[in-house]
Amino acid sequence: MSDRAVAGDPARQAGRAASDRPVVTIFELYGAGATAVGQKVAEALGLPFHPQAFSSEELEAGADATLQRNAVLATVYSAMGGAYGGFDTRDVVVTQQQKYDLVMENNRVVRGYADEGGVIVGRNAAVILADRPGTLNVLLTGSVEDRVRRAAEEAGIPVERAARRQKREDDVRAEMSKALYGWDPRLPDRYDLVINTSRIPLDAAAEAIVNAVRPRRA
Questions:
Q1: What is the CATH number of the domain that holds 205?
Q2: Which of 63, 118, 137, 204 sits at a 20 to 30 Å CA gap from 35?
Q3: InterPro entries recorded for this chain (predicted)?
Q4: Mean pLDDT by 10 residues, the chain (218 residues)
């Protein structure tokens, strides 16, 4: 179809405009600096910033406490089963429906964010938007010691507590992705950039991401 035909179709114009808006997806290992880096990138590019669906505080709580605080996360744990939701009373049909509903709703939210452009942390956005033009997928990693120290400083908690969070959170976030989307977000194969924030300062990491986005926009 010619550009002239697209130009005369408001719906197609809107679709093309949406796909032209840059999107950066970021997955981090706990404490690698995704919030700080993501906010800097969003500010530099004039884009909205969308944090992770579940906070560290929510993931730190046990399943019983989660049920009271966050019904969606409790449903995720139930769909994951095993140590998270238990096997005794699980119904296969119900579990599959839970997974389907969770995936469809998350897909809807992520694609809505992508339509307006933005920086999206977590949410399996690298998989959901894998074929979307103008999308840069980033993995932030680093040594455990550095990540725990940074997380403790950012959250204002003791290093010992941050270390416990790290052990749980890195596993929980990966298991969520495996259960719902069938991938391990810790592996580098789906990312355009992998940045070690133990070696690269956060400001420099943000600058590298912005520089990688701008040529795609051009």
A1: 3.40.50.300
A2: 63
A3: P-loop_NTPase
A4: 47 53 97 98 97 91 60 85 57 81 96 97 97 96 98 96 96 94 95 98 98 77
Strands 135-141 and 193-196 turn out to be parallel
Tokens 């074929």 sit on residue: 131
Domain membership flag for residue 12: no
Write the DSSP string, 195-212. Answer: EETTTS-HHHHHHHHHHH
Tokens of 179: 């259960």
Residues in Cβ contact with 194 at an 8 Å cutoff, skipping those fewer than 6 apart: 138, 139, 141, 188
* The pLDDT value given to residue 64: 55
CA–CA distance, 126 with 119 (Å, rounded to integer): 11
* Sequence-ordered strand ranges (E) for the chain: 23-28, 49-50, 118-121, 135-141, 193-196
- Phi/psi for 98 (5° steps) reads -60, -45
Residue 14 burial by CB count (10 A; 0-12/13-18/19+): exposed, middle or buried?
exposed
Q: Is the distance from CB of 41 to CB of 152 less than 8 angstroms?
A: no
Strand partners, 25: 120, 137
What does the block give as tokens for 68? 């009271």
Give residue 107's region: left, alpha or beta (phi > 0; psi -120 to 50): alpha
Q: Residue 7's pLDDT is what? A: 47
41 with 33: CB under 8 angstroms? Answer: no
